[in-house]
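Input record (one chain):
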Amino acid sequence: MRRRVCPAGTIPNHNPAEHVELEPGTEPKALVWTDEQVAHWLATGEKPSPVMVRTPEQTGTFLDHIVDHRLEVMWRPIAFGGPRRGEGCGPRWTDFSKKSRSLQPPNSSRTAGTSSKVSRRPTDPHLTSAAFMQVRSLV
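The corresponding structure, as predicted from the sequence alone:
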């Protein structure tokens, strides 16, 4: 598809999606996983909703499973700090301070209509590696 829109070695001087109009959508309803829903999902592969939320017990089981995994340091802040998607997946090594044992979430970009705003989320004291280690010792 990309080659038809943008042949190799050329850069278009227009946005091919500029005149595309999409129907407004509705946000899917988030549901909490129940034992029955998990059993149905395992048997059929069908999720009850596109957005499913784990229970605290399910989250604990997941975090126990990823101990010593290379991405454990990403999943723990997501589980306990509630960062936005880009904040959870987008930090760079420069966002982490060994001295203060803290993580400064990266810039977040929000778009509303035709304008966008870039802002930094204030550092949350709960998003520190010291807090993660305390939580880890409890899990």
